[in-house]
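Recall that a protein's primary structure is simply its ordered list of amino acids. Everything else, from secondary elements to tertiary packing, is in principle encoded there. The following example makes that idea concrete.
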Amino acid sequence: MSVTRRETLRLFGSGLAATAVSLRDRNDDYLPAEKALDRARLLQLLGAVPIAAPPLAAERVERADLGDVVREKVTYEVEPGERVPAFILLPKAASTRRPAILCHHQHGGEFRVGKDGPAGLASDSSQHYALELARRGYVTLVFDALCFNERQDATGRLKGGDYERYEAMYRITEGKSLQGKYVWDARRALDYLETRPEVDASRLGMIGHSLGGQETLFTTAIDTRIRAAVSSCGFGSLSTLKRDRINHNYALFVPGLANQSDYGAVLALVAPRPFFVAARTEDPIFPKDGIEETVATARRAYAALDAADRLGTFFEPGTHAFSTTMRAAAYTWLDQWLAPSKKWPHDAILKESLCFGCTPELIRNVHALLDQENRRWLKHSMSDSQPQNPK
């Protein structure tokens, strides 16, 4: 599909269009012609966004010394007149520019939590991945998605899911989508990361659990600045969700996507960049066969680009969660592709788990358990990241 510069700007805003232009930029022979999806078409499905991105006009609100990490609260502008609050976590020991990870928070009906979860200020320790990755040597950033924490209904009239429904439904009437808004805001977060002197902008990654995994899928498909990504329990397939009558957050349902393709075609747009799918075999909201269907579609695209080892999958028994083992596997994956100078030893994957398409280093770890040293690090990391200001 050919896209003019004018149309590209209209689709996703001049400030972000540089990485959005897609002039048949990949081989999509892995799908029937009627199910092929390119980046420009996905942008159209996501709906209208601002014509141009305003200056970030970033401001630091507060700074907290956590010992080995500094946490700053910042705000920046995502659309004219709309500022977003975020936490950026900076490893203290860093003396050079570091790789940076955009960490998207989960949903879980925890509308009061948002960014506080990954930053280690709320939720349980399984959600503290921004803090854990910062302690691992990455610069991390987590912002409040629309409808969460500081971005709940400013009028106070609508609460929780009612406000989420409001934002989703009225956007549809305006030719927009909540998913499009979430991707726009995530890309503005990447814009902000690029301005930080501590960040090596050539090594940007993204990670998230549940809603965060969903946003990692869509944002990584759209924005090629993301060099490696991890989605935990973030998607299945539209066909299995419909089959099993599974409702989800409103943003997951992109108008017209089912007529064009499924989530496998979205994941295929990430190829050949490294992407890791962490999932659980008894997840009630993402059936395992739907995850496998999506990955199988994308794997054909990766294979066509001679990049089969860059699409990794990791299944372990259990329901919807981002377990210690899943996080260890996820962090090892990011290390392999973004290569921070500080690595924690012996990140391993439980041998009962399944790991396909992983790099040789990750595969060698499949038969190892977390040894005592790594257990001590995880215990230290989690004890230091207990909620300080739960909301």
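Confidence is low (pLDDT under 50) at residues 1-27, 341-391. The first helix runs from residue 5 to 12.
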